[in-house]
Amino acid sequence: MTPGLFVRADVEESQHASVSELFSGNAVSAQLAHEMKPERLIGLFVTNILGKNSDCWVSVPLRSVWEDTASTRPALVAIVAGNSATDKHDRYVARAQMAQILHKTLIMLVKHHYHSQGWAYDRKLSDADADVMMDARLFAYGIFHSNTEFTVCSNFPRPEKQVDGEWQWIFDNTEWMTREIEIPLQHYHRTALFNAMLAVEQHMYELNQVLCFV
């Protein structure tokens, strides 16, 4: 997957600006940087590179309550923002939040798979059906960031055979990248975050095309 952030015509100015903000932004001191909210240190970069005016992503605070409605557009990227007091155990809370936010999206990915195969949505999978590979683009990223870590997870549906022999769709949340960081960010951390978010942004763009939201 080749990132198209710098060649696509529909990219917002804030997306390009986010790169210089990430690499040129410096805190006054390590103590001040540690006390700053992650939304200012990393959160703005994450949301700006995805397009601050885009409706493809959702960002929520850690441990907040997500209220989904019938009119809510399925998110293609779920972002969970930690705080200065975040510890390593909060990653699992964040992953649960990602899964909740992306639940509707993963159902849509399964429906897209059924439609591409010409199957009815109420079809019971056979063993042969379960072996049919899904489009490799049918997954959604989730991001957790705080002052101490940056984690990217892949969320995807997969068929799993139950004890009664029937197939059921399972929604997995798997860590794709986890990096422990310190504030202020070192250059190599900035580079890692930049490369990760280029991949996330490009996938979000392509998934938006696949699901015909454009």
Structure, described:
The chain is of the alpha/beta class. It contains 7 helices and 5 strands; from the N terminus they run H-H-H-E-E-H-H-H-E-E-E-H. The chain has helices at 13-24, 30-35, 38-50, 90-101, 103-117, 127-130, 187-210, and strands spanning 57-61, 77-81, 140-145, 149-161, 167-180. The protein has a 5-stranded mixed sheet with strand order 1-2-3-4-5, sandwiched between helices.
Instruction: Record the strand order, biggest sheet.
Output: 1-2-3-4-5
Overall form:
globular
Q: What's the helical proportion of residues?
A: 40-55%
How far is the N terminus from the C terminus? 20 Å
Rg, nearest Å? 18 Å
Q: Please provide the count of β strands.
A: 5
Number of helices: 7
Please write the string of helix (H) and strand (E) elements: HHHEEHHHEEEH
Instruction: Please indicate the percent range of residues in DSSP E strands (runs of 2 or more).
Output: 15-25%
> What summary fits the major beta sheet?
5 strands, mixed
The residue ranges in which pLDDT falls below 50 over 5 or more consecutive positions are none
Instruction: Please state the average pLDDT score.
Output: 87
